[in-house]
Amino acid sequence: MIYYLCKYLALFLLKLFSSFRASGREHIPRHGPCFLVSNHSSYLDPVVLGCASPRRVYFVAKEELFRNPLAAFFLRQLGAFPLRRSEVDKEAVQTIFRLLREGKVVCFFPEGTRNEGTLLPFRKGALKLLLRGNVPIVVASIRGTYESFSRHRKFPRPFPIRVVFSPPFSPEGLTPETLEGEIRKRMEVAFHGS
After folding, report:
1. Cα separation of 88 and 113, whole Å?
2. Taking Cα atoms as reference points, which of 186, 180, 178 lies closest to residue 120?
3. 24-56, pLDDT tens digit by residue?
4. How far is C-alpha 182 from the geometric centre of its chain's CA atoms?
5. Is the Cα torsion angle 49, 157, 72, 41 positive or negative in sign?
6. Would you identify the CATH topology of the domain 33-157+166-191?
7. Counting beta carbons within 10 angstroms of the beta carbon of residue 98, is it exposed (0 to 12), middle (13 to 18) or buried (19 or more)?
8. Which of 179, 157, 142 is nearest to 50 (CA)?
9. pTM here?
10. Residue 97 in contact with residue 117, Cβ under 8 Å?
11. Which residues of 164-193 are buried (b: 16+ CB within 10 A; e: fewer)?
12. Residue 43 DSSP code
C-alpha cells in the first residue's frame, strides 16, 4: 500500500516539476523475473525507475541508507533491501535470487555508486550476479536526474527527466566484459536519442 501511494505521489511531482517522460515501458516483461539495470547519478534514480516501470521494482541499495531507522522502514516498504559493498553479502545475494525465483523485477546500479554525469566502470560483482541470474536483462537509461539532484545539491531543482527502457536480452553465453559492453552500448544509444 505504501509503495503505490508513494509511487503515484512521486509520479505527480515528477510530471509537475520535471516534465517526466518514460519510453520503452513495453520492454519490461509483463510476467516472470528480470533484472533492471541503470546508470546512476542521483538519489532520484530509484524513484524515477519505480515511477516509470509498469511493474513493482525491488531495489538493491547500499547498507548505509538503512542506518536511520525511519529511512530503513520506508526503504523496506518501497521494496529496497540493503547490500554491504565492502564484502560478499550472502544475505543480499540470497534475497536477489529469492525475488527472481518469485518472478519479480530486481533493479541495481552496476556502477555501485552515483556518478558525476558520466558512466563509471561497472563492479565485477554486479556483472557476475547478472550472469548468474540468467534471466532477461532490461537496461534503463536515465537522463536529467544529475542536473536535477546531483550529489552536490542539497535539494532537487526542476529539470526535464527522461527514462528509456531497452528491449530485454539474455546474458547467456556472455562474459563479464561482453556483458558490460552490451549494457553500455544500450545506455549510449538511449542517451543519443535513438
Report:
1. 16
2. 180
3. 999 999 999 999 999 999 999 999 999 999 999
4. 17
5. positive
6. Cobalt-precorrin-4 Transmethylase; domain 1 (3.40.1010)
7. exposed
8. 142
9. 0.91
10. no
11. bbbebbebeebebeebbebbbebbeebeee
12. T
Integer angstrom CA distances of residue 42 from 87, 93, 150, 161: 24, 24, 5, 12
The three cell numbers of residue 14 are 515528477
Residue 97, all three cell numbers: 535470487
Report residue 111 as a C-alpha cell.
Answer: 556502477
DSSP string computed for 76-101: HHTTEEEE-TTS--HHHHHHHHHHHH
CB-based contacts of 156: which residues, under 8 Å, 6+ apart?
A: 17, 44, 148, 149
Segment 117-176, tens digit of pLDDT: 889 999 998 999 999 999 999 999 999 999 999 988 999 999 999 999 999 999 999 999
CA distances from 83 to 97, 110, 146 (A): 14, 13, 23
Q: 103 with 152: CB under 8 angstroms?
A: no
